[in-house]
Specification:
9 helices, mainly alpha, 197 residues, Tetracycline Repressor, domain 2
Length: 197
């Protein structure tokens, strides 16, 4: 009897780990069935034993990256006092994460997390719980929290996307503009919390 084929000894976790290693080394474009299979030294159809399609590979990889982001975020910010400054710290953490792992961040932003998907729903609820903690100084209703989460996401992720795309060409340092934006978000959240519904 010969040695078992490598493709039979691989797990779903191994496939996702290879996808992330490829993203880190070659960029977001490395997230494809053929390129991940090549990295693992197997034929592309072997990937489908673990993930049924290229879209499933992308989704599973993005969810794993979100889980890693949240774990790192919680470790970094877990013991910080709950003040309005915690939201600024969260904003800076996210921007630093995107600078450290630009390709991972790009993949995370390419996959839409659906509440109907159990794995994605778990990520969404963790994000909401963390944001609720960061905003616990404000008496936000559930609907206001959703509005604020969308506003914060649009501002922070939009800023990072423009920055990564090299589209911020004016002379003012982006760090200063980012700080002003975060302070503006905090002021806006205070206004929202004073409204009904």
């Amino acid at each position: 009897m010969g040695r078992p084929k490598k493709e039979h000894s691989l797990s779903r976790k191994d496939v996702i780990a290879a996808a992330i290693a490829g993203i880190d080394q070659e960029g977001a474009a490395a997230l494809g069935v053929s390129r991940v299979a090549r990295r693992l030294g197997i034929k592309p159809p072997a990937i489908y034993k673990h993930l049924e399609s290229g879209a499933a590979l992308q989704r599973a990889t993005a969810i794993t990256l979100w889980e890693q982001y949240l774990t790192e975020c919680q470790q970094t910010l877990a013991n910080r006092p709950i003040t309005t400054d915690l939201l600024k710290q969260l904003g800076h953490f996210t921007r630093n994460f995107a600078k450290t792992y630009p390709s991972r961040y790009q993949v995370m932003m390419q996959v839409q997390l659906q509440p109907s998907d159990p794995e994605a729903s778990a990520i969404i609820h963790k994000l909401l719980a963390f944001l609720r903690r960061a905003l616990s100084d404000y008496a936000l209703t559930d609907l206001q929290l959703i509005d604020v989460m969308r506003m914060v996401n649009a501002a922070i992720y939009g800023f990072i996307a423009l920055e990564q795309g090299g589209l911020m060409t004016l002379e003012r340092p982006t760090d200063k503009s980012y700080e002003v934006m975060l302070e503006g978000l905090i002021a806006a959240i205070a206004t929202i919390s004073e409204r009904d519904g």
